[in-house]
Structure formats: C-alpha cells, structure tokens
Amino acid sequence: MTEARESAGPQALRAPGTPCWVSLMAHRLTATEEFYGELFGWEFRPGPQQLGPYVRALLDGREVAGMGQLPPENRLPIAWTPYLASDDVDRTAEAVRLCGGTVAVGPLDAAEAGRLAIAADPSGAVFGIWQAPAHLAPAITGVPGTPAWNELITFETESVAKFYASVFGYEREPVVSAGFDYVTLCVDGRPVAGVHGVGHGLPRDRGPYWATYFEVADTAETLRQVRGLGGRIVRPAHDSPHGRVATVADPEGAVFSVVQDPR
What we know:
This protein has helices spanning 10-14, 29-40, 89-98, 157-168, 219-228, and strands spanning 19-26, 43-46, 54-59, 62-69, 80-85, 102-109, 115-120, 126-131, 147-154, 171-174, 181-187, 190-197, 209-216, 232-240, 243-249, 255-260. It is α+β, with helices and mostly antiparallel strands. The protein starts with 9 loop residues before the first helix and ends with a strand.
C-alpha cells in the first residue's frame, strides 16, 4: 500500500483507470454471502445474471461489492477481482489486446449496471473493466466494510506498470528504496492502486494477482471473526504506515487483506 488511501468522490470513482468495483466468483454463493455478511455487515440483493447467479453486496443501502457463482466444473482459483473504470469498455479491451494482454470475457452489457469485460495483463493477473452509466450511484468508500486499496502482486513492476499506463493512462510513481520494487499508479495526481514486484516471493501455485484491502474498525476483532466463520489467517496482523494490516482467506480460499485506519 502507498501513503494515500483517500476516499474518492463520485466523479473520481468514474475517472478512467480508477478501481470502481470489486467482485468475487465462488462455488458456494450462499455460504459466501453468510461469511461476508457476518464479517462486514453486508446485505445482498440480486444483480445482473449475464454470467450466472450474481448478487450485489450493500452496506447501509449502498453498493460495495459483487459476488457471483462459478459453475461446478469451473476450477479457476477463487479470488477477488478489481474492476477499473473506463469511458469505453470496447476501446479499452482493444488496448489491452494491443498491449499484450488478453480479454477473457466480453465486452458485454450487464443490464442497468453498464458494460464490462474481464481481462488479464501480460503476466496473467486478472482484472475487470467497467463502464458505468452516468446515472449509476458510485460505490460507498472510506468506512469499515468497504474496499480501501487494490494492489497488483507480480514478479517485477517495470514492464507490467508500463502495460497498465499504456491502457489506462496512469501516471507512475516508483518508490525509491533499495530492495523494494513498488510503483504507485495515479490518476490526475491521485494514487489509485499499487504494483508490487516480489520476484521469487510470488507463490508458485498462484502467479501474479490483484489483492484487495478492505477497511475494518478493529483488525484484531476481524481476525477473531474470520476464524470463527471458518476462514483462516494468511499473514498475522502487523503495524504499517497505513494502519494495522492482516491478510486472511475466506472458507473457499479467496485471499484478501484488512486494514484498520490509524486515524
């Protein structure tokens, strides 16, 4: 994570390249709803069904995330996927292809939610592209139970950060530190996501992936809840410049991080 995790306003959330949504595809959708509902206080309502059963997670009546159900025969890793805003999904998808990435799904219309595609960068990390209609209310941010940051965990930052800058027009801010390979992606000078190169520290059975951080009120209490709900601790809580952080996995194995704002 970088030093900046400021909540974006409605227009900033739609600025091209800004993470504007996160979604999880799981095999046991009802059980997954129960886990996150208890953990974050989310409620659920049906969402677009173009890719199968799908629900939107709400906090205080505002949308914060989405969850879908994978077909039984689909053995893809269970993972949270960020969606990056676009003014034109079709054009962005073509840019992904031209810059060495792939488009696995779409572009396609998702009812009143807008238009989307699911892609992968040249290293294989999966992300979404979302073109939201102008009338759609932005997702809530900046409170416990909402996404706080998205970070690409990959082999090295230089080539992959260039890919995302070419596709979305990001400004890149490398962290100048010996032995620490990190680039912050910015939109109009505002940090929106990070790219962390970990070299051989990347799990061999996983490959590069996008990691989502969710804000929580109390990291210790959240970890207790995760265990009680059948999840597990991947990395214990530790202090960081951004607050107390821990990495966990839900009962199906989807890994995510939680962060307690130090303010």
